[in-house]
Amino acid sequence: MPGSPGAEITLDADLENLGRFLEVVSGLAAGEKYDARRSKMIELAVEEAIVNVINHAYTDAKGMLTMSASVDADRRLVLTIKDQGRPFDVSNVAEPDIGSGVESRKIGGLGVFFIRQVADEIRYAREDDSNVMTMVFSPEGRPKPETN
Amino acid sequence: MQIVVSEKGGAKIMALSGRLDAVTVGEAEHQLNTLIESGQSIVVIDFETLEYISSAGLRFVLAGAKKLQARNGKLLLAGLGGVVKEVFELAGFYDLLPVFDTPDQAIGSL
Predict the structure, then answer these.
(1) Would you state the pLDDT for residue B53?
(2) Reduced to 3 states, what is the DSSP secondary structure of residue A52?
(3) Up-side HSE of residue B49: CA atoms within 13 Å toward CB?
């Protein structure tokens, strides 16, 4: 069967709802028989995206977060999160320096880095005063560069 | 998440189980800060039964390491495996802090 109709949930953009958003993600991954490792890595990327909305888009006021989740014809999970906060495009966030030592290592910047590492595709749009971010995850993840 | 604190050879071992994420990290921070404020300088975090960690968890680890270093103490990591280890590696944290197979090995290294 090509893809599935998927699910959509809208909840307060609050950390207390993080688990409910992630349950949708892990449920979809389990339904498509993703292995446990890949499923957890996808949860990681989605957690970072949601935490970014809470911390960076809704800095001044609280608001809602809508997550749409579906599976495409290639068994890829397509997750879109939408908020009405300040414009926040992850593609403008700089890479953390992952080579520096404990003293100089900055605390932060890792969330977006994880999203970029785990998602196969990331799209961002500002539509009708909303941030719309779509992440696409394949069952296997992007092939890793050879490290010999 | 569940946190069990034990003591061995003058070091405190914090064993974490379940999920260390943006929601649960506060408990872990509180527990570690309590140990540091009571004068503990050597802390081992045991990740053996931790199933999931996000950047919030890594920030907790890094902040704890910095705090202990500032007091001439040390944060040692043990029991990293599976997805948790993978996230540490992805972030470049694996080479940043001393990592051991077990808490006993971590304490034995001192």
Answers:
(1) 98
(2) helix
(3) 9
Q: How far apart are the first and last CA of chain B?
A: 29
Chain A residue numbers with beta carbons less than 8 Å from the beta carbon of B97 are 102
The per-residue pLDDT for range B77-102, each reduced to its tens digit, is: 999 999 999 999 999 888 889 999 99
How far is Cα B15 from Cα B2, in angstroms, rounded to an integer? 8
* Cβ–Cβ below 8 Å for A108 and B59: yes
Cβ contact B41:B110 at 8 Å: no
For domain B2-101, which CATH number applies: 3.30.565.10, 3.30.750.24, 3.30.1330.10, 2.60.120.480? Answer: 3.30.750.24
Half-sphere exposure of A11 (CA within 13 A, CB side): 17
pTM over 0.90? The answer is yes
Q: Does A145 touch chain B (CB under 8 A)?
A: no
Closest CA to B77 of B86, B65, B68, B66: B65
What pLDDT digit, counting tens, does each position of A34-89 carry? 999 999 999 999 999 999 999 999 998 899 999 999 999 999 999 999 999 999 98
Q: Token digits for A52? A: 């970014």
A141 at B interface, C-beta within 8 A: no
Model-level ipTM above the cut of 0.90: yes
Looking at residue A93, what DSSP letter applies?
Answer: S
Tell me how far CA of residue A114 lies from CA of A73, A110, A120, in angstroms.
25, 6, 12
Chain B residue with the nearest C-alpha to that of A45: B54
